[in-house]
Hints:
The chain is mainly β. 0% of the residues lie in helices and 39% in strands. The chain is built from no helices and 24 strands. The protein has strands spanning 4-7, 15-22, 28-35, 46-47, 56-64, 70-77, 83-90, 101-105, 116-122, 133-138, 150-155, 166-167, 185-188, 194-200, 210-216, 224-230, 247-250, 258-264, 271-277, 288-289, 302-308, 314-320, 334-340, 351-352. The chain is globular and about 50 Å long. The chain starts with a strand and ends in a 6-residue tail after the last strand.
Amino acid sequence: GEPFIAVNPQNPQHMVVAWMGYVFLNRISIRTRASFDGGKSWSIAVIVPHAADDYTSADPSIGFDGGGNVFLSYIDHDDEESGAVYVRKSTDGGLTWGEEVLVIQYDSDPGKLPIDRPWISIDRSGGPNQGNIYVTTMNAKGADGPPYHPYLTVSENSGQSFGEWRTIDTAGWLSGPYIPQPMPTPVVTADGRFYCIYPSFLFSQGILPRYILARSDNAGAGFEYNTVFASSTSVAVTDTSAKKGYLLRANPANPGELAFLYLSTESGDPDIICRISEDGGESWTDGIRVNDDLPGNGRMQDLVWAAFDQDGDLAVTWRDRRNAQDTGYAASYEIWGAVKLKNTDNFTSNFRISDLQV
């Protein structure tokens, strides 16, 4: 489950995948494979060891640094309120992994369980923070209660160790008491700035829920904030089975261009929506509907993934149910995609990627 893929920005033929795999008598472990020929062939699957014998692993994500090293972040924990987020480094392109390095523990923020959904992002800018590794997390289910927070932990020595964790939100820009898992989605731009977006709902900050952008010019020591947009809960996707993860992406060819992708029912059913900023998050376009099936046809789109290529084209894929006979989450689906070419305002016509309905 939960597969993740990363492509080496210095060599597009080199990619590494990670996923959660069952290992007999060893619970769930992270597994990885690497390809050096654009996916035509793959290395044998590597089983990433647990930090403790009774642990189980989850939520892998991968990042490359500017020198071609690969870093893997993941959760390793048990059912007795013990565990942590760890990062491992590979110097051979993802064929083997070094020892685990602690990022943040189950009880680092007592009672708040700040280890869920780690995302890794790495500075490849060539600037003063080149090689910095940023790992964001959120509260896990079962936390003691509000307030809830997005979290950040930073390594300033290329993953040899991680510094003290901090909450990303702050007074006036709090995530609030009503969102128990305020996941931050992070990027590092081509000029070395760290950005993330997290959800917020707190009446003293505004009557509508909103997404907040946090920007750091000093490696996460401090942040500037801005609202991406606020909207009524009436456009939220309420189906609890839908994969509603939202994504922030940065154009490597233009440090000021950011893309934010999320799900919304503003056209009558769950659609993939994209907003673009050309000024480093100071202002954002209105939402652009990415999927081009008939609006309001009752077909749920979800599970969005996206990436910029090296010269600024934005590719988006998602799970699409436009050809299903039924509505709702359980309807059969295909994987579809669309591209927004650099220096254009709109996405291409959608195209089908998978060749079967599932």
